[in-house]
Amino acid sequence: LGDRRGVRVVCGRTRRREGTMKLNIAYPVTGLQKMVEIDDEKKLTQLYDKRISQEVEGEGLGEEFKGYVFRITGGYDKQGFTMKQGVLADHRVRLLLKGGTCYKPRRTGERKRKSVRGCIVSHDISALSLVVVKKGEGELPGLTDGNKPRRLGPQRANRIRKLFALSKKDDVRKFVIRREVKTKKEGVTKTKAPKIQRLITPVRLQRKRHLNSLKKRRFEKSKEEAAAYAKLIAARKEEAKSKSRTSKL
């Protein structure tokens, strides 16, 4: 009935035209993401038979991607079944899953048989997720030319140090990223900050010393009790030997 933007409507249903694939490209440096649709079969052959976590040269996908290197991180087929890492197949399989990707158990020990797509890219893939590993010569509008600030900052102490290039002597608590939260009252804003994880404080060091001293006391006590028990056993054996000697006489 019509053909618009690579989608063909047949008998009231939409069907994607053969040889088209959506590429969801992410660039972690800027925090931006962009969707590109490719309908050229020759360009898509660059991606076929590649696995998840493999790298792909961007020049084969178009002139605008010259010099770029992408890494495949996932995808899903035309029916919506996601690709699963470790399944070395280019078709759909049914697996008994107990957790991890593609399945979240609701109870402890629960397992379920589900259909998943293999980790090898084929012509049945509808959308593929890529991450920019190496930036090329030109800029990609909407991906590399802007910047999207992070809404939430890191929580772990070492990651905060890494983000701000701090030393161990610097106070991490002064560099926590705070975000503003609107309240119901007009003109009043509050700030929220995450609780720092794995933060080493004097109280934590004192607690660790206390636990180590308790452990040392328990070890010494058990050692003394073992020595006293061994002495008691030896005395009883000597007493039994003396009784046997007197009875023989």
* Radius of gyration, in angstroms, nearest whole number: 32 Å
Low-confidence stretches: 1-16
Which series of helices and strands comes N to C? EEEEEHEEEEEHEEH
Mean pLDDT: 88
Q: First CA to last CA: what distance? A: 119 Å
Please estimate the helix content: 10-25%
| Residues in β-strands, percent | 25-35%
User: Count of DSSP E strands?
Assistant: 12
Overall outline = elongated
Structure, described:
The protein has about 250 residues and is α+β, with helices and mostly antiparallel strands. The chain is about 25% helix and about 25% strand. The strands form four sheets. It has a five-stranded mixed β-sheet with strand order 5-4-10-7-6. Strands 1-2-3 form a three-stranded antiparallel β-sheet, with no helix packed on it. A two-stranded antiparallel ribbon has the order 8-9. The N and C termini lie far apart (about 120 Å).
Can you summarize this structure?
With 249 residues, this protein is of the alpha+beta class.
How is the secondary structure organized here?
Layout: E1 3-4, E2 7-10, E3 13-16, E4 21-27, E5 32-38, H1 41-44, E6 55-57, E7 69-77, E8 92-97, E9 112-117, E10 125-134, H2 157-164, E11 179-182, E12 189-192, H3 202-248
Parallel strand pairs: 4-10
Antiparallel strand pairs: 1-2, 2-3, 4-5, 6-7, 7-10, 8-9, 11-12
